[in-house]
Amino acid sequence: MVLSLQEIQKPIEHELIGFEKKFRDSMKSNVMLLDRIMTYIVNRKGKQIRPMFVFLAAHLSGVVNESTYRGAALIELLHTASLVHDDVVDDANMRRGFFSINALWKNKIAVLVGDFLLSKGLLLSVANKDFHLLGIVSDAVKEMSEGELLQMEKARNLDITEETYFQIIRQKTASLISSCCSVGAASVGADENTIAQMRDFGEKVGIAFQIKDDLFDYSTSKIIGKPIGIDIKEKKMTLPLIFALNKVGWMEKRRIVNIVKNESEKQSKVNEVIEFVKKSGGIEHATAVMQKYVKDAVGIVEGFPESPYKQSLIHLVHYTIARSK
User: Does residue 316 contact residue 273 with C-beta atoms inside 8 Å?
Assistant: First the structure.
C-alpha cells in the first residue's frame, strides 16, 4: 500500500516545520525586489521531497542536528537556483502551475536571482564550515549541468543508446536525490561506508524517479504534471522510445527518428510515435527496469535497523514511483 505524503512525513514532521523556517530565513535579502521574489518562491514550494530524503537518511544514520538542517537548506537553495536557471534556458513560463520567475520578472532578473540563491547556499556552508556537505552538493550541481549538456548534445542526432540514457539521467536527475541522502548521512557524522550506501540508495531512487517521469509521456491521464508527448516534442530520447527503436528494423527506426526530429510539432505525429512505443513493448520494459531500481534501493535500506524513519524512507521510495504527477 502506498501511503500519502502526509503519513510518510509523520516521523519527521517536527524537523520539516523547523526546516521551513530556517529555509525562509536563509533566503532573506535587504534588497526589496529580491525579498519579494524570494517570498514568491517560498510560497509556491513543492512537496518537500528533497528535505524529506535528507532528514530520513540522517535519522537512519545518526542524530539530526543543526548541520542536517543546513544541509537540507543548502540542497534546496542550489536546487531552486537550478530550476530558475532551467526556466530561462527552456524559455518556460510556468513552474508547478505558477508563473516562472523569468515570466514575471524577465530573464535578466531571473539569472541574477539564480546566482543569488547559489551564493546564499555557498555562504551558508562556508559560514558554518560545512565543507563536507558543500563538497557533496557542489559535485551534484556539476553532474546535473553535465547531464543536461550531454542530453542537448545527443538530441541533435537522436543517437542515444540505453547506456548513454542512463548516464544522462544518473547525472541530470539521480545525482540530486543521491546528494540528499549522502548529505543526510554526512551531517550526522556517519562513516564513509554508510554515506556511500546512502549515496547509492539515492542514485537508484533518482533513476527510478526519472523513468517514472519518462512514462508520463505515454500516459492518457489528464492529471499528470506535464503535457502528453512533451518529451517527444522536445526531441528527448527516453527509455521507452530507445527500447522500442532497438526492437525494429532499420527502415522503421529511420521513419520514427525522422518524425521525432522533423515533425514532432504535429500532435498527430506525436501520437503515432506514442502508439509505436506502446506496441513495441517500450512501456513494459521501462516499467520493469524502474521496478528493478526500486527493489535494489529498498534492499539497501532493509540492511539498517528497524525504525519509523526506515519505514518512512521505504514508503517514500514507493511514493516517488506511484505518484500521478
Answer: no
Quick one: cell of 297? 534501493
Task: Give all domains of the chain, ordered by start, each with its CATH number.
Answer: 5-322 (1.10.600.10)
Helices vs. strands in the chain: H and E counts, helices first: 16, 2
Angstrom CA distances, 264 to 54, 104, 228, 232, stand at 39, 29, 12, 7
| CA atoms of 132 and 71, how far apart (whole Å) | 10
List, in order, residues 6 or more apart from 124 with CB less than 8 Å away: 26, 70, 73, 74, 77, 130
Q: Largest alpha-carbon pair distance within the chain?
A: 62
Q: What are phi and psi of 225, to 5 degrees?
A: -85, 0
Dist CA 248 CA 266 (whole Å): 23
Give the pLDDT of the chain (325 residues) as one tens digit per residue. 788 999 999 999 999 999 998 888 888 888 999 999 999 988 887 788 999 999 999 999 999 999 999 999 999 998 899 999 989 988 888 877 788 999 999 999 999 999 999 999 999 999 999 999 999 999 999 999 999 899 888 877 777 889 999 999 999 999 999 999 999 999 999 999 999 999 999 999 999 999 999 998 887 654 444 557 788 888 888 999 999 999 999 999 999 999 998 888 888 999 999 999 999 999 999 999 999 999 999 999 999 999 999 999 999 999 999 876 6
Distance CA(215)–CA(208), nearest Å, equals 11
CB of 182 within 8 A of CB of 136? yes
Locate 130 and state its grid cell.
Answer: 560545512
- For the chain, strand residue ranges (E) read 94-95, 98-99
Cell representation of residue 285: 520494459
Torsion angle in degrees (nearest 10) through CA of 237, 241, 246, 249 = -110
Model-level pTM greater than 0.85?
yes
Name the CA radius of gyration of the chain, rounded.
20
CB–CB of 86/234 below 8 Å? no
